[in-house]
């Protein structure tokens, strides 16, 4: 410690601006190398900070807001048109809704929704009418499902304000329970009078469709053998950057918030620390009105807030946000590489140990007349239980590898459809996979899940044939759907403003555009994301962001060097 202190020590006088000459004190003499290192760290830190403070402040604020994309005003409030480029307006117009479902008894009746609202159509989607919420609310829609018994005679909606139901095919909706709760997924249960709900991507509830009774299903964590042995780099980096994957969801989010707000506060306090003394000096005699003691106190508090407080609290977050930001900024070029790189469990952050399901449940499906059997979709895999959530089996894809993600599940007929969006390949999985789990005395044997010690049990004789059914006839990576529905024995996969049509085995048939519900303007979340990426200013801004990311690393290192010598003023 003494060596480090002497190595970073300056031989010149204290460099704090705003400190009077009488208050300056000579530093102990040290070797020339130590003095030069400290002086250069000071110069580099100052000029790098001044050069980047504007954009770093913008990155910090927009990053903080994007970590809270569930806020309703971000999804439903609109950015000013004069600040929005034409291409972003076109993008918003093509992506008004995430869900689009068709009445199997009459294709004229349709329902579509997403964070921006809910709309119904009675003419096959040619025109749309906003659903009237009888309580006057305008919730975000996170799931749409028909009633297990009544079908489209009663529709159910998961929202950020509980559960709503409609008995007129979406023309109007009334609250049905869990007011104030963020219901993130909804699906039919194994019983005709129940639904399965997911709250905050963490809790699974049974919900009575007739009496509104609620029962929580206790879920056991995944054991070591069932957890995915690896996670692909793209999912790991994405979850780290968006505050979902260090520890538990709240801790991870707070860490990212500290990083984002810290970047903004460091830019602000750094500017004031550098600029106020120059402003006072430029005022000449006018500045004499303010006492020297007040100036010194101001500078002291700015330094103490900037370096030993905000700087130290956020430096770790700033470093990982910068590195992951560079990788995501070049996601298009690096996508295939990041999907191919597998990060072993031993090198993942504690959140990936899945000691709890909190924050991991993206979707859920159950199976008729199969009590206790349901499948959970998550950002790192697809897991099925046959005993009400006490134990789970990990599902595999057509090539025998663990399913990498299951962002959205929907059960249609005797098939479970995985509409993965940008999370990974979309797939079709027959119900008999779940039935095998129910029938098998050893659930893991039916799916070929590694047993104790990592040994893989012998697969059943028809395993290869069953795996052929888990796929999409070669269309797995051809589009990025956010929902899937059925029309005349064909599957319609919604992606942006198009339907990609496949047969029930996933073979491509055609694609066509669909009319989007009317919702003019660009949601703030889209505008903020574009600003954060810099593409609001220039389509190739990612290269500029790389420079600023390197700058954050440099500022972190030089800032630590300065802090080591002068921890407090």
Write up this protein.
The radius of gyration is 28 Å and the shape is elongated. Residues 1-33 and 441-460 have low confidence and may be disordered. The chain is an alpha+beta fold and 569 residues long. The strands form eight sheets. Strands 6-10-9-8-7 form a five-stranded mixed beta sheet, with no helix packed on it. A four-stranded antiparallel beta sheet has the order 2-3-4-5, with no helix packed on it. The protein has a four-stranded antiparallel beta sheet with strand order 11-12-13-14, with no helix packed on it. α1 packs across α13, α2 (32-66) packs across α6 (249-283) and α2 packs antiparallel against α12. The protein contains 13 helices and 28 strands. The chain folds into two domains: 39-95 and 244-342 and 529-569, no CATH class; 96-229 and 350-526, TolB, C-terminal domain (Neuraminidase, 6 Propeller). The protein is 36% helix and 22% strand.
Entry keywords:
22% strand; alpha+beta; 569 residues; five-stranded mixed β-sheet; disordered N terminus; four-stranded antiparallel β-sheet; Neuraminidase; 28 strands
Question: What oligomerization state is this entry in?
Answer: single chain
Form type: elongated
Structural class: alpha+beta
**Largest sheet geometry:** 5 strands, mixed
The CATH H-level homologous superfamily of the largest domain: TolB, C-terminal domain
What's the structural domain tally?
2
CATH class of the largest domain: Mainly Beta
Strand order of the largest sheet: 6-10-9-8-7
